[in-house]
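Section 5.1 Outputs to date
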Amino acid sequence: MSYITGHPLVKSCGLDTKTSPRSTLLNYSSVTTVDISRLLGQAHNKHCSLDPCPTWLVKSLSVRPDILTKLVNTSLQSGTFPSSQRHALVTPALKKPYLDPSVPSNYRPISNLSFVSKLFEGVVARQLTAHLEFNNIIPAVQSAYRRNHSTETALLKICNDALWAADNCMVTFVVLLDYSAAFDHSIMLNILEQRCGVIGQVLQWDTSYLRGRSYAVVACGVTSETVDLDCGIPQGSSIGPLKFVVYAADLHAVTSRHHVIAPVRLLKLIWRFEMSVYYYVILLLCRIVSLMTHSCTDTRKSEMYSWPRKTC
């Protein structure tokens, strides 16, 4: 691998992903009672056993916006996410009904978070999303975890480009990559600071949000002991998907230089069909993997296809 990644052709595939944003995000803006009331109105009535009272009761209290507004603004201004809200109750959910329930890897860990925690996340997610979109940090072809986007938009893009390539006597290479490991907190914070322009109290708040977390597993009515969480982010949080998109954006930065479309988990490579293109694809993938050392791809779920089999 060291020889391959050091090959001149691989070096030509390189890309300096440390681009500076047009603006920085130094402080989160304070919210008003109107903002909190709107978030409360949009919130579901689901509640977690960590909540001291049901969600519907919190939403019905007349004094709730003022109190919650003060809590949120104090957190944003101090750059600290409350330690009492960093705990999660994890419920293992079987990924597919036909999978073997005795195999731990067949389960998806769904984190149940407190209502106040999700309220904090909702406020931060809106402001962080606005900053990322203004600086064009979220890839334009990113379909997951974006408003007005879905798997349908990704599929339409892939099909359209593949048909266009076939009409122009070109071959489409589809590479499927699957992330199998949670991201590292230190690398995530470095990406937020260096590439997203998140600094000051905003970076301090995000550091406080990521670190010092804990969880306990709830299954069959039994709760496990509390365990510290030193990597990843709760699956089920509002801000988690946004951070994952930022974390994986380097993949798009590499492929876009070579006219490659790369939604998270999916790469589509289009070149003229020559024997040497296979070698080029492999080398480019080596470059991609080398940039994804902060993640972990599951080789058992990673595949590559080419279409059509014959060209003009």
